[in-house]
Amino acid sequence: MEKNKNNRIVVKVGTSTLINSDTGKINLRHMHALARVLSDMRNRGYEVILVSSGAIGVAMSKLGIDKRPADTKVKQSLAAIGQCELMALYDNMFSDYHNTVAQILLTRSDVDSDDRREHMKNTFNTLLEMGIIPIVNENDTVAVEEIEFGDNDKLSAIVATLIDADILILFTDIDGLYDSDPRRNPDAKLISRVENIENVENSAGGAGTDYGTGGMVTKIEAAKIANDAGISMLILNGENIDSLYDVMDGKKIGTLFKAYMK
Length: 262
Prior knowledge:
There is one protein chain. The protein is built from nine helices and eight strands. By secondary structure, the chain is an alpha/beta fold. The protein has an eight-stranded mixed beta sheet, sandwiched between helices. Helix 2 crosses helix 4, helix 3 packs across helix 4 and helix 7 runs parallel beside helix 8. The two termini are 14 Å apart. About 3% of the residues have low confidence.
């Protein structure tokens, strides 16, 4: 990715990256790496927005709950607990690298309202002008539908279009999109570049852990939203947050959903 002073990057991190699937505990190594690399990107002159899932997963870890509950009231309560914990962790970790973060919680009604969208855009732009890293999550505590919104994949694409981002990067639990499920087919091949989303929709699978809600289906839906707005989307493996440096250096990794309108 060629850097210029207007590079705006939206990075979305999923629950599978923030929570250890084996233990259900917070993956502090990944969170520290995320704070370090995104802070370094800010120091290099990039404008960075982080869309972070994980509130419910963090609360499950804090309370020792092993399986994601089905009851909406319980999920909303867990989101309220976990969001506080999640932002406290981010605030402390980004502060270690001399960067300030701001919390933005959104609902579907926020993004559907023209007036609210304009206010959101103004807030994002002002925060970025101030050198702040906005951290976005769905406001799971006040609306039912947001908890099933797609593990923030589609929300991250909406945020990218709202702020006219240059690229959307999604961290997930595999290297990218494969031609079949690599967990079941050892011969599955990574698709490095997608120019026609309809050709790859059958390759998508569901969520991979008990702590998240997303999967490749929601990522393809996010790619459609971003590509329609002229924004390319890249899927990377959350096991290697440092791969963002490779992206900045122009190396071809993960799966790129290429847009041509921008």
